[in-house]
Write a structure and sequence with these properties.
Layout lengths: L3 E12 L6 E12 L3 E5 L6 H8 L7 E6 L2 E2 L4 H7 E4 L11 H11 L4 H14 L15 H13 L5 E5 L7 H16 L3 E6 L2 H4 L5 E6 L2 E6 L1 H8 L2 E8 L12 E6 L2 E7 L3 H14 L2 E8 L2 H16 L1
Parallel strand pairs: 3-8, 3-9, 6-7, 7-8
Antiparallel strand pairs: 1-2, 1-4, 4-5, 9-10, 11-13, 11-14, 12-13
Helix pairs in contact: 3-4, 3-5, 8-10
Length: 314
């Protein structure tokens, strides 16, 4: 465990020429270790898929280094494709196959023994509650079932590196939770997982580290706790107000947003106890209807990082 499986150093990839040149990756550094889920977070066009395609040998970088399980993945892209299991952003077409058959087929192609592949396939089908559709032709299943099948195809005999590109797209909320558990289990079993997503709130549940990518550059790379603490160090107070009545706010509390009967304020961590005491008294007196004090989220961090980058670029 804790072995470096993927190391990317100063990776560059651009498209076009002259004024139309787009730097999809502009000096990206990235490390993923065994037993880790590393979230690669960014909006559409941030450079996430370009990075993944280079890692798995589908696209050649202009400059930089990619080391995968100890070998040069740029010089040996065929080895990269063997070492990595990938769930692409678009589902693999499995026309004419059932989900169970497709999962088992990929497991056998990846070198799994028949009995082990069948057992693992059954586990994934049960864990993701796909039993009802396991024997149905793929043309007749929903987009969510197809997406879960694609994940299972990547996870049935996982490589040392498992790359998941937007794995929860089209998946219903109940099965998303099941899917996150299986993603976490892949890392707990020793795989290095690179999770590509723009869903900050959901990624927060399972990632060990978060890499924020914007305009081809890494804006941040740290644990979720370190990112939220280093950029904010504050809590958020949300108050549901009594209609047509403003509470007597505590001294020095800066209310940042008011609207639709709700107010929000940033609270320094060392003032949390004082604010909770005020809110409890206000609630008991009927001056407010509800309050909640929560730490900054990864979504807060992401928005703050991207906003600062856009301000610097303008």
């Amino acid at each position: 465990m804790d072995e470096v499986v993927l190391q990317v150093r100063d990776l560059h990839k651009k498209y076009g020429r002259g004024r139309r040149t787009v730097h999809a990756n502009a000096g990206v550094d990235l490390t993923v270790r065994s037993g880790q889920v590393v979230g690669l977070l960014g909006h559409n066009g941030a450079g996430k898929s370009t990075l993944v395609n280079q890692v798995v040998g589908l696209l050649r970088p202009d400059a930089g280094e990619i080391t995968l399980t100890g070998f040069d993945a740029i010089a040996h892209p065929e080895k990269a494709r063997r070492a990595a299991s990938v769930q692409a952003q678009a589902n693999v077409p499995i026309t004419g196959l059932t989900p169970r058959t497709a999962i088992e087929l990929v497991g056998r192609i990846r070198g799994g023994e028949l009995a082990a592949v069948r057992e693992r396939t059954s586990h994934l089908i049960d864990a993701l509650e796909l039993g009802e559709w396991a024997g149905v032709q793929s043309e007749k299943v929903s987009g969510g079932v197809a997406r879960l099948t694609a994940f299972a195809m990547a996870a049935v005999v996982p490589g040392r590196l498992v790359v998941l590109d937007e794995p929860t797209n089209d998946v219903d909320p109940v099965r998303r939770r099941m899917l996150w558990r299986e993603i976490r289990a892949l890392a707990d079993d020793g795989a290095a997982v690179l999770l590509v997503t723009h869903n900050v709130r959901e990624a927060e549940r399972v990632v060990d580290r978060l890499v924020v990518l914007d305009r081809g550059k890494v804006l941040a790379d740290d644990t979720p706790a370190a990112l939220t603490q280093s950029r904010f160090g504050t809590l958020t107070l949300e108050v549901d107000m009594v209609p047509s009545q403003l509470p007597d706010w505590p001294e020095n509390l800066v209310v940042t947003d008011r609207g639709q009967g709700r107010a929000t304020a940033a609270v320094p961590a060392d003032q949390a106890a004082t604010v909770v005491a005020w809110a409890s008294e206000a609630l008991a007196a009927g001056d407010i209807e509800r309050y909640a004090l929560t730490p900054a989220s990864l979504e807060d961090v992401y928005i703050d990082l991207v906003d600062h980058t856009e301000e610097a670029a303008s």
